[in-house]
Design goal:
The complex is a heterodimer.
Chain A lengths: L3 E8 L2 E10 L4 E9 L8 E7 L6 H7 L3 H7 L2 E5 L38 H16 L2 E11 L1 H12 L7 E4 L9 H11 L3 H4 L4 H6 L8 E6 L3 H4 L5 H11 L3 E6 L6 H19 L3 H13 L4 H5 L1
Chain B lengths: L1 H32 L9 E7 L5 E7 L8 H6 L4 H105 L4 H20 L20 H10 L9 E2 L12 E6 L8 E9 L14 E5 L3 E4 L7 E9 L11 E4 L6 E2 L5 E3 L2 E7 L8 E9 L10 E6 L3 E5 L5 E10 L2 E2 L6 E4 L7 E2 L7 E3 L5 E4 L21 E4 L7 E7 L6 E7 L14 E8 L4 E7 L5 E4 L5 E7 L4 E6 L4 E7 L6 E7 L3 E6 L11
Helix pairs in contact in B: 1-3, 3-4, 3-5
Classes of the chains: A alpha/beta, B alpha+beta.
InterPro entries (chain B): B30.2/SPRY, B30.2/SPRY_sf, Butyrophylin_SPRY, ConA-like_dom_sf, E3_ligase_FN3/SPRY, FN3_dom, FN3_sf, Ig-like_fold
Organism (chain B): Xiphophorus maculatus
Keywords (chain B): Coiled coil
Chain lengths: 306, 624
């Protein structure tokens, strides 16, 4: 669990750092970026996990999204991992941009040859949080998750599969229903096999339909001029329809003129950090009240699901 | 003179009194220090001032005898201790007496001085009076003397004239006799005959002349009876007091008036003796004609004191008052007229027009008086904390109009009341209003409501009925919304943070938000630059939401229909945010720097109801 600092730059009063470590889940060396706000020097801070999209490394988000000022203002640590294992020498790993390297899809692969390394779901939900909480001054119970495109899909499934684990979730142009889109179908077939029923575990729209747990508050931004929206890769309407039916609160904003790029992310990242800050920085007594209300329920749904 | 005698006599009495007083003081002082009491019956001089203010002495028996008797006390050596105790108590009693006596002596001295002073004044007064009488008498004497002299002169003159006339008559007759004798002695008969006839004629004529020998003037002098009645009056009045001079009425003292009464004070000149005063008063009405033809009736009160409380007056009215003093001799002239003012009636707080937020409250009230008052005082006290109950913690004075914006502290409860103030003082407190500074509180502005809107009794629920009103039945006024079935709320004009909630049901189509006070009444909310609102549209398949300003809305989808909408307005940051209050879900934020104050606005786009929830503490998440 040893961390090696790769870089450290002062940023927005705090530090933007990159670390390298040996991942046990992925069986390779992994890099992740972490922004430490000024508050982190003296106090514990909550952590927002950012999952990037296809082809990205830990660098894209920290250099293009402009999240640091808002993170510094709200006192939030942002951890941005890489999007897949790297250098595992798996055949076909680097053949296409939407599968293999840079396209882990935040699933635990069950198919050879991917199943040894491509365990991004466990990496971002288990190994990475443990590593972060062990090495940085954090509140382990105050974490949230967000992402873009494939990372948006990752953020949604992490939140929907782990009720109560994340205080908040949001996404920018997420792949909402991967089972129904070419990207998702390609990735799921590769990582999970042909049995579509195993895909359902990693599909936000399917997961939302069976979600049972503490109330989520999902913020989704989507550029109207996003080429992948019109190419039916993202399918937000399917998710919204399910959430409307299941009464899962979603605010979905269709932003006219915006595309799928980091220019779009940059434009709305502040709203997302504020959305996370609202839940991550909620007064502890409020959290306590919510907890007690939950524990009053006859059947602990959290326990059931976990 | 009598005066001196009286004076001397009185002085003697006074000096005797003082001697006796001195003596008694000496004796009592002596006794205080004499441990062994005198065997013979001691006497104390007891003084009292009776009601006539004259001094009287009452020798009386010793009122503090030693219970064992003076003899016993001296003989019984075994009871020395007891005896000493008694002596001490006796001594203490005596010391008490001495103090009493000294006190009394001081009092007497004072009285003595007063008597002397009064006496001196009286003497002066009498002297002046007698001088007046003497002067009057001597003048009367002079007048009479002059009259007599003149009469005498007239009489002498007339007698003298008579004398002269007699002498002349005598001369004439003498000459006639001589002429007759000469004629008679005339030898020449012819000449005699010639001259005798005229002489005879002259004698005859002379004989005809009647000489008045009676006295032309009476010897008596007319001496009319002297009318000394005025002198007598003067003499009579020497022993009675003069009529008082006009009292001096004081100007109105602060806080001496009530709504219906005035406390009036005046003073007299120290020399005057007054039996009673009569206080006259009448209201000063502004529309009374200058000639006073229909001036209001004056009222009168008779009092013995130099002050009086006049009751049963009109509130907030000016009264003209004057006073006369009367004693047995007569009535003084009236004092100057003073103007007094009764205090106003208490104002009436207009509950439905008051608003508040965590930092302030806007209180509006009705004057409660038909005439204008000078100013208002707003009093506030914090409730709920021990020890401050009912005690005024802050007053805002000299409020010129019927409203006041009061800075308050958040999260408290206050009782606020108002007093009207004029020159006569402050009115009673108005009924208090309770203000909680937990959240922003406002009422809806009924005068802005579209005619199709009706309101619940508490004023927080608006209804848009199913039945369409015919256009003729709609009463559009200047301020009402004419197109959008809307109403404004009366938000307090404070550039802080405000939060309120709106409760709707699934099917209600509504617009809620804020608008400038002068937003166009014939436009839909959100369709212009002076309003910002969230709009809910119910389509057959789903709920649609718009966040409208200038007719434009971002494109967004909300999966859970909010039935309780939180609206958070932050002037400083220039934001207006909407929340699903039940889920703490943020829905949308407008960014706009509101240059003017805005009012909450509510409208129903289809028949239904909408309830405003007010005075709620803004949740933490609303102002991140």
């Amino acid at each position: 669990m040893a961390l090696t600092q790769v870089s450290s730059n002062k940023c927005a009063g705090g530090f933007q750092k990159v670390f390298k470590h040996d991942s046990t889940e992925l069986n390779c060396k992994m890099k992740f970026a972490i922004y430490l706000p000024p508050k982190a020097e003296t106090d514990k801070c909550p952590v927002l996990y950012w999952l990037s999209g296809l082809t990205c490394t830990e660098q894209n988000f920290i250099t293009k999204a402009g999240s640091q000022l808002a993170a510094a203002e709200h006192g939030i640590i942002i951890v941005a991992p890489d999007t897949s294992p790297r250098g595992c020498d798996i055949e076909g790993e680097d053949e296409s941009w939407d599968f293999g390297t840079g396209a882990g899809f935040y699933v635990d692969a069950t198919q050879d040859p991917w199943k040894t390394n491509y365990r991004m779901y466990s990496y971002v939900t288990e190994e990475l949080p443990k590593l972060i909480n062990a090495n940085f001054s954090t509140y382990p119970d105050r974490m949230s998750i967000s992402g873009h495109s494939m990372g948006g899909h990752g953020a949604l499934i992490c939140a929907l599969k782990n009720p109560g684990k994340y205080k908040a979730v949001s996404a920018l142009a997420p792949i909402c229903n991967p089972m129904q889109c070419p990207w998702g179908q390609k990735a799921f077939t590769g990582y999970l096999g042909a049995d579509r029923s195993t895909w359902e575990e990693y599909d936000a729209t399917v997961l939302a339909a069976s979600y049972f747990g503490p109330q989520l508050d999902i913020l989704i931004d989507q550029g109207r001029d996003d080429q992948f929206l019109s190419a039916s890769q993202l399918l937000p309407d399917n998710l919204i329809a399910v959430c409307s039916e299941k009464k899962i609160p979603v605010v979905f904003r269709l932003q006219p003129g915006y595309d799928h790029s980091y220019f779009f992310i940059y434009s709305f990242i502040n709203d997302h950090i504020k959305h996370h800050a609202k839940y991550l920085n909620a007064m502890p007594h409020c959290t306590a009240t919510q907890t007690s209300v939950q524990s009053d329920r006859p059947l602990g749904p959290d326990a059931q699901l976990q | 003179m009598d005066l001196n005698d009286i004076r001397g006599g009185r002085l003697d009495v006074i000096s005797e009194e003082s001697e006796q007083q001195d003596f008694s003081r000496e004796s009592s002082t002596m006794e205080a220090y004499t441990v062994v009491p005198e065997p013979a019956g001691r006497t104390f001089q007891r003084f009292s001032v009776n009601t006539n203010e004259s001094l009287r002495f009452e020798p009386c028996e010793d009122s503090c005898p030693s219970p064992t008797g003076a003899e016993d006390g001296r003989d019984d050596v075994f009871e020395k201790g007891e005896c000493e105790g008694e002596i001490t108590s006796t001594r203490n009693q005596l010391l008490g007496k001495v103090a009493e006596m000294e006190n009394f002596a001081g009092h007497l001295e004072e009285i003595f001085l007063t008597v002397e002073e009064n006496f001196g004044r009286q003497e002066q007064h009498l002297e002046q009076h007698y001088n007046d009488v003497l002067q009057t008498l001597s003048q009367r004497y002079d007048d009479r003397e002059t009259g007599l002299q003149e009469e005498k002169k007239g009489k002498l003159e007339s007698l003298y004239n008579q004398l002269v006339a007699c002498g002349q008559a005598l001369d004439t007759s003498k000459e006639l006799i001589e002429t007759a004798q000469e004629v008679y002695r005339c030898q020449d008969k012819r000449l005699f005959l010639k001259t005798v006839m005229p002489v005879v004629k002259r004698v005859e004529e002379f004989a005809k002349e009647d000489v008045d020998l009676s006295l032309s003037t009476s010897l008596e002098f007319i001496t009319p009876l002297a009318d000394l009645s005025d002198v007598k009056t003067m003499m009579d009045s020497i022993n009675i007091v003069p009529a008082p001079s006009a009292p001096v009425i004081n100007p109105q003292l602060p806080n001496s008036a009530t709504q219906t009464s005035l406390h009036v004070c005046w003073s007299l000149f120290s020399d005057d003796t007054v039996e009673y005063y009569e206080l006259y008063y009448r209201p000063v009405l502004e529309d009374t004609p200058a000639d006073g033809t229909c001036a209001p009736q004056e009222s009168k009160v008779k009092v013995k004191e130099t002050h009086c409380t006049v009751t049963e007056l009109l509130p907030n009215a000016q009264y003209e008052l004057w006073v006369t003093a009367t004693n047995t001799t007569g009535i003084s002239p009236a004092s100057e007229k003073a103007l007094y003012m009764t205090v106003p009636s208490p104002p009436v707080i207009k509950q439905r027009e008051c608003s508040s937020c965590p930092e302030a409250a806007l209180i509006r009230w009705e004057s409660g008086n038909t005439n204008p008052v000078d100013s208002y005082t707003v009093e506030l006290s914090e409730t709920g904390t021990v020890g401050t109950e009912n005690s005024i913690t802050e007053s805002i004075v000299a409020v010129p109009t019927c409203q006041c914006l009061i800075q308050l502290q958040a999260g408290r409860q206050y009782l606020i009341s108002v007093r009207a103030v004029n020159i006569g003082g402050p009115s009673d407190r108005s009924d208090a209003i309770t203000i909680s500074t937990t959240g922003t509180f406002f009422y809806l502005l009924e005068d802005t409501a579209h005619p199709c809107l009706s309101m619940s009794e508490d004023g927080f629920t608006i209804f848009y009925g199913d039945e369409e009103l015919p256009i003729t039945a709609m009463a559009f006024e200047d301020n009402t919304f004419t197109r959008c079935v809307a109403i404004l709320g009366d938000l307090i004009p404070v550039r802080g943070r405000h939060y309120w909630e709106v409760e709707v049901d699934d099917e209600t189509e509504f617009r809620v938000g804020v608008a400038y006070e002068d937003t166009e009444r014939d436009a839909y909310l959100g369709a212009n630059g002076s309003s910002w609102c969230m709009r809910h549209i119910r389509t057959p398949s789903r709920h649609k939401y718009e966040f409208l300003h200038n007719g434009w809305s971002p494109d967004l989808r909300i999966t859970v229909h909010p039935v309780r909408i939180g609206v958070a307005l932050d002037y400083d940051r220039g934001t207006l945010s909407f929340f699903n209050a039940n889920m703490e879900q943020h829905l949308h934020t407008f960014h706009c720097h509101f240059h003017n104050y805005v009012h909450p606005c509510f409208s129903l786009d289809n028949p239904g109801a909408l309830t405003v929830h007010n005075g709620i503490q803004a949740p933490d998440y609303t102002f991140i």
